[in-house]
Amino acid sequence: TQLLEQSPQFLSIQEGENLTVYCNSSSVFSSLQWYRQEPGEGPVLLVTVVTGGEVKKLKRLTFQFGDARKDSSLHITAAQPGDTGLYLCAGAWVGSGGSNYKLTFGKGTLLTVNP
Amino acid sequence: DVKVTQSSRYLVKRTGEKVFLECVQDMDHENMFWYRQDPGLGLRLIYFSYDVKMKEKGDIPEGYSVSREKKERFSLILESASTNQTSMYLCASSPTPGQIYGYTFGSGTRLTVV
Q: Which option is the CATH number for A5-114: 2.60.40.10, 3.40.1360.10, 3.20.20.370, 3.30.590.10?
């Protein structure tokens, strides 16, 4: 099983601040996805990055995939209370046979944005 | 809007009971998954299926089994529920390749075994 480490585990900030959360592994991933999960709900896909060095933007969220495809970051600009939630990264590792059908999830970063 | 529907949001069962968790998706996805989510442990894969009647063990299959008789339905079975199976259970589905298109999750079933 491939491991994904997310940091920080918890983050509490004020509205308007910027933040970055990280997702790291010693393994190479064929793609990496970011999800957000709100209390009592399932995770919701935010973005998929596939190419090393790729940068994707989703409004105030910027996602980057590392050149070596072993790490990723999520940067939020001017955070708002609506950004509060558990942010999960998930990597699909380069495997054989049926392995490509699975994702490995990190434990997540719990973000709280205070008004 | 595409959906993954889990039959129950909350469930309380007694130790030793046989428990069925049902998941239905309306997106014609080939792949379906069962995860459990626990504080400090994250999401852990129990079983997955990439075709009807096909199943493969995930990282923590012990004490669980699954059934996929139809493409849209994937059932998780706790053969004899134990207190350490108290958890949030999440079902997900994806088209192929799931690593590109991502997973669609249900809202989860919070199971308590007493």
A: 2.60.40.10
pLDDT at residue B6 above 70?
Answer: yes
- With an 8 Å Cβ cutoff, is B54 touching chain A? no
pLDDT given at position B46: 95
What is chain B's mean pLDDT, rounded? 93
Query: Beta-carbon neighbour count of residue A49 at 10 Å?
Result: 21
Strand pairing class (A85-93; A71-76): unpaired
Q: What is the torsion angle, in degrees rounded to the nearest 10, for the CA atoms of residue A110, residue A113, residue B4 and residue B7? A: 80
pLDDT given at position A95: 53
Q: Is B38 on the interface with A (CB under 8 A)?
A: no
Number of domains in chain B: 1
Q: Smallest Cβ distance to B43: which of A44, A100, A105?
A: A105
Taking a C-beta distance cutoff of 8 angstroms, is the pair A113, A19 a contact? no
pLDDT in tens, B20-60: 999 999 999 989 999 999 998 999 999 999 889 889 898 89
Selecting from B42, B56, B105 the residue whose C-beta is nearest the C-beta of A108 gives: B42
Which CATH number characterizes residue B98's domain?
2.60.40.10
Whole-Å CA distances, B20 to A40, B36, B62, B87, B90 = 20, 14, 15, 14, 13
**B90 CA to centre of own chain:** 5
Which residues in chain B are contacts of A34 at CB distance < 8 A?
none
